[in-house]
Amino acid sequence: MSSPFGAIRSQRLVSSLLLLRLHHQPHHRKALHLHRFCRSLGSSITTTSNNHRHRPEAKHSSSSQSRQRLSNRPFNRLFASLRDETQQEIMTVNTTDRLVALRAAMSRENVDIYVVPSEDSHNSEYICAADARRAYLSGFTGSAGCAVVTKDKAILSTDGRYFNQATKQLDSNWELLKQGMPDVLTWQEWTCKQSEGGKTVGVDATLITAQQAKSFEARIKKAGGAGLKGLEKNLIDEIWTDRPARPNNPVIVLGNEFAGQPFQEKLEAVRKELEKKKSPGFVVSMLDEIAWLYNLRGSDIPYNPVFFAYALVTPTTATLYIDSAKLPSDALAHLGDAVTIAPYTSIFSHLRTLSAEVKATAEAANEPVKKWLISNKTSWQLSQSLGGEDAIEVVRSPIEESKAVKNETEREGMRKCHIRDGAALIKYFAWLEKTLLAGEKIDECQAADKLEELRSVGENFKGLSFDTISSTGPNAAVIHYKPEPGACSVIDPNAIYLCDSGAQYLDGTTDTTRTLHFGEPTEMERKSYTLVLKGMVALDRVVFPKGTSGFALDVLARQFLWREGLDYRHGTGHGVGSFLNVHEGPIGIGTRVQYSEVPLAPGMVISDEPGYYEDGNFGIRIENVIMVRTVKTTHEFGGKPWYGFEHVTMVPMCKKLTNLELLTKEEKIWLNDYHKEVLENTKGFLEGEENRYVREWLERECEPVPVDA
């Protein structure tokens, strides 16, 4: 999945007939929440585009039956299970009444300007429907952006991926700030300018980090504003009359056969960090960190096996702040006496009490007050609950870095799940080629459904890791493309097809992109594909010394495109979790400064996914998941160990799109060796007469290429 993209997707309208049917399905309550959310987004809606293609009947995959079956899986996204019965259009929502109500609430709180971020209170990349406040207020449903409202103005700031969508979805109440365009203010700059004359800026204190709040307030005051007011209530929640409830699904225990380390050992590692810092405790607010720390998984966020909770680790105690209804008996037994359970929202009052006790004890002993540790992603409100800036130390989360380095069990799980996942993808690509060349019509959504069906029968499958990007021709040039039922394209066998997809398994998380062609590609398509392939291989083959970051390696994947004056507008790689978020920090490969902060280390798992895109024509991306490993070198300069990568993705490259004349001898050897690995690792999953054509397809794609002298 192209880095660094990914967040909540556009919502869909659910028909009344569907709701009646879903009352008899296991997830009907979720469907009702979805319906209420969609209805609340668009109580007054104008369609701005209805140029939809009719979807052909699927002849090889009963999509609706497949979705109905898959929707019963606890970690599958509800939205995916409803594709057949829902439709998405680009719509404009009349936001007049919402803005009137918000401005009245602002007056009651003595706020002149109100900021509505996209994130939830855990700074999550993906959010649930109940936290889509910016989408509700503005009508803009893209994954990235920030809304700001004054007494008489409203702006929405977003990046280039969403200019077209925002233009269509925003009504006349809103001004669009096109982030990154010349002479266009950022939302922070715009807000500071509006604050001139002593105006107060308000924001939900749980939706902005402590560091962001400090920096933003300084800028506001410098511009002549009164300051930044952190509100304990969310003003959108007050006016959102039909807001869906937050998910409250039960958690599951991830056994040590998958986690590889008891949670008690993880707690002790955190306590060692507390001892080094002489700190009374570490507050954990990131959902994936909490899930990893306690060896628990959930299903509260689409595609991400996490659950709503907070955690606090002290030198002698561990507390999990969670709705107790989410903890079945086996989870309670798993946590035992090592963890205290407290209500989810009680963390704020609990931190205030603990902080006051620590301060009083220090003052009584005439000693310096010990500082609480929080990560750079912890909310302003949690920081304030601990006593503010003087009571905290902002650190890089020790859990985040430990989580990024997979243990031996997790590494082996990643290898195994990628082999099973690769076999499903091989079956899918063979089926797709066979179906298209037989002259049958398959649209992008039907194809994605078939892939999910093939994955779902695999061992340890728990759902998708993100919405499948199934894209044909010019749609493949849209980096963040998502096919929608009723609006997606029929796959053209004479055009490039890009498929970026992944799944969640108990033993790991997958993310694979392949670009294929079922007809006769143009020379430019073959050249572009081969340049991208060369970059992917260069990164896969690199050897580097300890201390090297992903920032330093990014150029390897781009170098061949750069020589031709070409490039791509996304990161080259993102960290990948183990049955956790498909986008995982703190590592990445790209030009962002943050990718220089943490060096790559053995056991870290990351994607390798360069690409090239021609707007309105085609798009190419090739993605393998790779794992950092120690390599043997002839020398060890400076006494440093040297690292390289192990690829765990097992899916062949597209032979038809590869121009062998552009590959070096070493690259051809790599390609042959890789395809030999793919054949050997996946053939055991492709047995039986029904898979004869799949094996033939795989053997053809993996046939060794000639290696010139």
TrEMBL record:
Residues annotated as domain Peptidase M24 C-terminal: 641-705
Principal EC category: hydrolase
Q: Which residues form the Creatinase N-terminal domain?
A: 98-222
Q: Which GO terms describe its molecular function?
A: metal ion binding; metalloaminopeptidase activity
Stored InterPro entries: Creatin/AminoP/Spt16_N (IPR029149), Creatinase/aminopeptidase-like (IPR036005), Creatinase_N (IPR000587), Pept_M24 (IPR000994), Pept_M24B (IPR033740), Peptidase_M24_C (IPR032416), Peptidase_M24B_aminopep-P_CS (IPR001131), X-Pro_aminopeptidase_P (IPR050422)
Domain Peptidase M24: from-to ranges: 412-629
Report what the protein is called.
Probable Xaa-Pro aminopeptidase P
Its lineage reads: Eukaryota, Fungi, Dikarya, Ascomycota, Pezizomycotina
